[in-house]
Amino acid sequence: MNGCTQESFELSKIKVLKEASGIVVDFSVQREVDGSLNKDIYTKESATFAHPDLLNPIYNLKDLLIKSIGKETIHTERLIAGMKGLFKKEADYLELEQIFEDHMKGEKSKIIVSGISLSGFDLNKGVTISGTYQCKNGAKISINSPRIRFAGEHFTFERELHELCEIIEREAYLYVFKDKAAQGSLIFDEEGE
Known about the structure:
The protein is α+β, with helices and mostly antiparallel strands. It is 40% helix and 28% strand.
């Protein structure tokens, strides 16, 4: 594993541990031995706080996870069904729009992205986004997006998703091989304020 370059590093899965207290990274390293290419598979679990450059792109996948599972429309449709006939006045419509906006903020706050899993090659390369949804009773359930191909056009956000996954892969490499982590003193100083 020593001397791994970013070009030979391939991320397959990354998971943020509870309360961002660490990261689990599954990856492979391609290396040449006696003229043939070998792929070694590794898992690194670390309790070191990840750098925000790695965590932020993972958390930025929240909107894409919500869109991919249709969560943004499920409750909105139920609210619309309960509000039929209230659109007669502009003021009523604006009130309804505010209700939807507040509802979506509440729903978004219940979802936490915990990681990604990359698979496939070339045009079939894609990702599954994983997370949790907090139910009304406080229990958390796992949610996963369908596998989204980067070369696809079904969801309309594949390019944005691919760019975020490239950033995550680059930052995962820096975390694993270059020890790029958050500065603990800054994290604890912010929590104390």
